[in-house]
Structures are given as structure tokens and as C-alpha cells.
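Quick illustration, no need to memorize.
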Amino acid sequence: MGHVVIAQSLKDANEIAGIVKRKFRIVTVDGDVVNPGGAMSGGANKKTNQSLFTREKELQELTDKLKDFQEKTLSFEQQVKDKRQRIKELEQQLSDEESILIESKEKLQQHYSNSKEQEMKLDALNSQLEMYDYDRNQYKNDHNSLIQREKQLTIELTKIKEELNSLQNKMDDLTKQEKMYNEQQDANKSKLHQKQVLLAEQEERMKSQKEKTNGVQNQLEELQQQYDLFQKELVEIKYVDNSTHTEEELDNIIISNKESKTSLTDSIQRKRLERTNRSQLLEDNEREIKEENKKHQTQLQLIQQKEVKANRLDVELENHLSQLQSDYMITYEKALQAYEKTKDIEKSKAVVNQLKQQIENLGTVNIGAIDEFKRINERYSFLTEQRADLIEAKQTLYAIIKEMDEEMIKRFDETFSQIKEEFAVVFHQLFGGGRAELKLTDPKKLLETGVEIVAQPPGKKLQNLGLLSGGERALTAIALLFAILRVRPVPFCILDEVEAALDEANVVRFAKYVKLYSEDTQFIVITHRKGTMEEADVLYGVTMQESGVSRLVSVRLEDTKELVNS
């Protein structure tokens, strides 16, 4: 047989071909041939040499098998009827269960909404509880601090009352001293005025005495001059020439001069005595004036001391009033009206000390409480506004949802009615007869209802979509699709082997129907059926000429006539 290798089976032949690198022809016992290069042939002519007896035997076997299959078919049909009845019962049960499930879902959704609402309330209550705990702790701290502060303030108040009583006593003493000082000052001023009057009188007297003394002094000087003149005349008289005057004349002149001298001497003595008296009186007056001046200086110094003391008391009084104003925020007049003068100073001091101790026990004042209150108040206002906004937004959303539900119900009702009408028309056209109808499972609740398809193909009774065959269900779904496209046209539509379960007649009807609507909608159909390809305008396919290498092939069927003519 040359380069021919005999193998038991096709599997062995392929293994041998792989070993010899496909250089020899390999033939199996069953007649399959593996040519050099890998090409295989065979299997088509196995039964060409069968005899007539063999065919009769096979025919008998096939008849027996046919009877067996018919019996099995009847049995299967009965089982199918039983199964269908069971399916109907199960579908009814399923429908009941679905209704119960829908009600349970509604209850669950309601419980879920209630749970969410309760969770939100719980979160709000937890937040309020935290704020309450914070406020309670803050209140306790503030209460404790206020108690300590009250004790401290009580002690300080006791001290303040003691200080007030002390200040009141000092002020009373100062008032008495001031009154005595004013009285003494008035007396001193009166005495000073009297002394000044006396001093003025003495000064006037002294001035008068000085004038008189000066006048006497002038008279003495004049008398002395006269005396000197008389002495000179007397000397001249002694040396006068006797021949000039007579003795009697001279005696008369001498007597006259002596008399004049005696009178002058007496007058001088009187003047001297008067001058001495006046000098003594002047000295007495001057001494008295000096004494009065000393008393005056003493009174002035005493007045200055009193003024200094009064100024010091005024300053001290002013300091006490300032302390009363700054420390206790009260004026003297207000304190005098609000508080009575204490009679028992020690008891008042004890009360003031006790109040101060209570004030000190209150502790320090929480200055940040005001800022904290402002912050919490702002947060409360902010959260209140947020809550109001959320409630308003919630109500707005509910209103929008209600409007959307109404609009959806309206549009669904209109669209469903249109699709229902178009579905009946398209179903009749695709099936070539029969009728179909769309039904709502719960017409009262359009947003929650389901849609049932009840179809009656030609020659069959009206039944649910689930009881139809695979091809009938597919064609019914296609009818529903085209009904939707008639109501709501779209620019293009992609169909992926939707007609795979259809027979040839329905495929052709489907393809023509697609062709009819291709003017308004572009269809992209993925298919392996010839009837659909024949109605297409353009075909795109994928071929593999070599292992692992794919190639795209396209054919424009609309140009077929031109190609044939050419």
C-alpha cells in the first residue's frame, strides 16, 4: 500500500499523524482518511454497501422504537398535563404567595420607615440626653461653685459690714472733729479779727505817737536852735559895748533873757519829760504789738495745722468713699439710706466676717458661662433652624414625590393603554391571527402593579404567557417590543438573536416586520437565521481563515441587483 498507514480509530489516526508530522496517509478501519497535511475525509459512505435485509431489520427496529416512543409520548403528554396542572396550582399558589409577599414587603417597608423614624428620634433623644447630661453637669459645677461663692461672698459681706461700720465710726469721728474744727476755726477767726482790729488800733496809736514824737522832736530841735541862738546872743551881749546900752537896759535885757532862758529850760524839761513819756509809751506799745504779733503767728500756725489736718481728713474721707464705691459699688448716701447704723460693732463685725466667708466658699465666678451660654444658644438656634429646614424639605420632598407619583400614574396609564392597543394589533399581524391582551395584576395600585400577558395564538385557547411554547413566547415578546416601538419610536434598536426559537415561517414574518419599521428606526440584529439575513440591508460577519486570525466580512444586499446585472 505504499505510504499508507492503517489505524484502529480516528483518534489513533490523529495521534499517528502527529507523530509522523502528517507526511503519510492514514486510513482507519471504519474508512476515515487522514491525508498528508491534516485534511480528513470519510464517514459519508459508511452505509452505502448495506443490504436489503439489513434495512428491513433496521426498519423493524425503528418501528418498534417508534411504538415505544409513541407510548412514551403519551406517557409524557399525560405527565405534561399533570405537570401543567401542577404548574397552574403552583402558579396560583405563587400568585397568592406573591400577594402575601407584596403585603409583607409593604409592611416591611412601613416597619423599615418606622424604624428609620424611630432611629432618627432615638438619635435626637440621645443628642438631647447628651446635652441634658452636659447641662446637668454644668449646673452641678455651677451650683457647687455658686455655693462656695456664696460662702465667700458672705464672709466678704461680713468684712464689708465691719469695714462699713468702722468707716461709719471714723466718718462720725471725722464729722465731729470737723465740726469742732469748724467751730474752733470760727472762734479763731473771730479772735483773729479782734486781734487784727486791736493791732490796727495799736498801729494807728503807734503811728499817732510816732507823729507826735516826731513833732516833739522837731520842737526840741527848734528849741535847741533857739537855745543856741540865745547862747550866742548872750555871748554877744557880754561883749557888747557899754557905750551902746545902758546898764539898766542891759539888766533888763539880761533879766528878760534869763526869763526867756528859764522859760525855755522849763519848756525843754517839759518836752523831754513828755518825750520820755512818749518813748516809754511807744516802747510799751511796740512791746504789746510784738506780743500781739506773736499771738497772731501762733494763731496762724494753729490755723495752718488745722487746715492740714482738715485736708488730711478730707483725703482720708475721699479714699473711704472711693473704696466704698469701687469695692462695694455703693455711695455713702445709698449706704446711709439702705443700712442702719449698728449699735453692737463686734456683732456686726462677726456677721460681716461670716458673710465674707460664705462669699469665699462660693468660689470663683465662671466668667466663661456667658460665652458657653451664647455658644449653646447659637447651636440650639442653628439646630432648630436645621430641624425646621429638614421638616420643610421633608414636606417638600413628600409633595414632589406625590406630584411625581401622580404624573407617573397618569403617564403609565396613558402609555399602558396605548401599548395595550398596539400590542393587540402587532400580535395579530405577527401571528397571522389570534389575539393577545395586557392585564394589570393590581389596577388600583398602578405604581406597584405587575403586567400579565394573556395570548391566544391561532388555533389555540386563550392562556397565560407561561403556558405557551418557546417560539410562541418569543414571538409574543417580539410583538410587545414592536408595540412599544409603535407607541414610543426610537432612533435605533439592537436585537440579539430574538428569533432563535422561531420556525422558518415566523422568522420570515419577523424579518419582514423589521424591514417594515426600518424606515423610522435603525435595527441592528444579531442572528444566525437565513430568513432574517435575506431582509437585511447590510450583513457583517466574522470568519477565521487561519487558526487564531479573525476577519470581518461585510456585504451590502441592497446592491445585489446591480451586482447581478453587472
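Residues 44-53 have pLDDT under 50 and may be disordered.
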